[in-house]
Amino acid sequence: MSGLRYVYAVCRPFGTPLQAQLTGIGGAPPALLRHRDLVAVVSSVPAADFSEDSLKAHLEDLDWLAATARAHQGVIDALTTVTTPLPLRLATVFRDDSGVRSMIEEREEDFHSALNRLQGRVEWGVKVYVEPEPAEPAPEPAKPVSGRDYLRRRRERSHAHEEKWQRAEGFAQSLHERLARCADDSRLHAPQNNALTSGPGQNVLNGAYLVPRAHSEEFVEMVDRTKDEAPGIRVELTGPWAAYSFTEEQPRGRADRAPGGGEGEES
Question: Span of the secretion signal (predicted)?
Fold first, then answer.
């Protein structure tokens, strides 16, 4: 078997063509596979990379995984500019077009329900970070500090640190409540690990908001107005994205899917 069918997303038929230079996994251009009144966005990928054994090995290769995730996301981003896509998991593959059509037919009702809910909406991400404490200046040579003074300073620093975190958590909760009222739906994800964040600081809010595309400008302006509300706190806005956080359980292929198909990790 020389090739498999990789599925990026399912959507409704749309009239605006995708970018002519758009490429997907392995540089292959995405194509539209229509089944009844739904469309799967697909491309051909080599079985040597996406068979069950090969895929397990590749998922341990961070460089391969990152390049594949970027190509997958590039197709989703392009779709988001022309329609409302329902993204599928990274590395969702089938043996051929027939397998893709069977998957669509099996989950047709779920797809329509999700697309009805997401139609005309995009996802915005908002994160709040507590900025790191500034480095303390080197102590000047001076007279020795008594044990009592040392403990007092420690208590003061600890109290200030606790107050800062309480303010940050209160700000994050208030911000989430305000943004959620202006969105059609919202999700609170677990705070990101420091190693995965895009800048310094501790993540205290990791929210996703489903916003009508027509109201996105107002949503962005609202977030921008909050960025100077709390000193020592950074607000980060990302998007607009396809509505990953609001997609229900993704479809899994039938028995005729390719080995390992549809079981990859989400991007």
Answer: none
